[in-house]
């Protein structure tokens, strides 16, 4: 990638890191929150918003994707980071939906990585705006196979879960 201009590459997914595939944000302003699942004092709340004013009865947080992918282009293998908008193309659902599916099906994240392995995509990659960040960002992703099926659809079939259900195997 030359300069700061985004570049488009044809690539194949080699592997996905199944650990920490999402993070929590304020449902109003989308600022990153502390990990409410690991907090003994209850869910985290945004210091900048009064989320109850925006959405009474809301928990105040939601999850967004942050996925590390190893991809192979024609000339090299490298790691990219895929945030929510691009990751929804790969997974076919929101990070909250996948998080709850994975809670009921503990190996779902690992299996999703295996489902995506070998898939070919056209990815537009950009350099991170944060100088400390290590990986290129996936700005957009387009499947190259007309038969591409988002990971959640394949997982629902494998685990025997109905399309609208979030429960475990039936």
What can you tell me about this protein's structure?
Residues 8-127 form the Replication factor A C-terminal domain. This is Replication factor A C-terminal domain-containing protein. InterPro entries: NA-bd_OB-fold (IPR012340), Rep_factor-A_C (IPR013955). It comes from Tetracentron sinense (Spur-leaf). The chain is α+β, with helices and mostly antiparallel strands. The protein has a domain at 7-21 and 67-159: Nucleic acid-binding proteins (OB fold (Dihydrolipoamide Acetyltransferase, E2P), Beta Barrel), CATH 2.40.50. 24% of the residues lie in helices and 29% in strands. The protein has 5 helices and 6 strands, in the order E-E-H-E-E-H-H-H-E-E-H. The chain has helices at residues 51-54, 84-91, 95-104, 108-116, 151-159, and strands at 7-16, 22-26, 61-72, 77-83, 120-126, 136-143. It has a 5-stranded mixed barrel with strand order 1-3-4-6-5. A hairpin with a 4-residue loop joins strand 3 (61-72) and strand 4 (77-83). The longest helix is centred in the middle third of the chain and has 10 residues, at 95-104. It starts with 6 loop residues before the first strand and ends in an 11-residue tail after the last helix.
Summarize this structure briefly.
InterPro entries: NA-bd_OB-fold (IPR012340), Rep_factor-A_C (IPR013955). Helices cover 24% and strands 29% of the residues. It has 170 residues and is α+β, with helices and mostly antiparallel strands.
Which key phrases capture this entry?
Rep_factor-A_C, Replication factor A C-terminal domain-containing protein, NA-bd_OB-fold, OB fold (Dihydrolipoamide Acetyltransferase, E2P)
């Amino acid at each position: 990638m030359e300069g700061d201009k985004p570049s488009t590459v044809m690539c194949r997914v080699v592997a996905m890191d199944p650990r920490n595939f999402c993070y929590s944000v304020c449902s109003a302003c989308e600022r990153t929150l502390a990990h409410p699942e690991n907090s003994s004092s209850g869910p985290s709340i945004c210091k900048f918003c009064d989320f109850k004013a925006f959405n009474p009865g809301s928990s105040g947080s939601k999850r967004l994707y942050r996925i590390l992918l190893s991809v192979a282009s024609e000339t090299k293998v490298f790691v990219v980071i895929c945030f929510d908008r691009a990751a929804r193309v790969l997974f076919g659902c929101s990070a909250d939906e996948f998080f709850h599916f994975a809670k009921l099906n503990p190996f779902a994240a690992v299996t999703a990585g295996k489902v995506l392995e070998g898939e070919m995509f056209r990815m537009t990659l950009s350099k991170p705006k944060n100088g400390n960040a290590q990986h290129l960002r996936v700005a957009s992703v387009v499947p190259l196979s007309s038969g591409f099926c988002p990971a959640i659809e394949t997982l629902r079939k494998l685990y025997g879960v109905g399309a609208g259900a979030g429960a475990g195997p039936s």
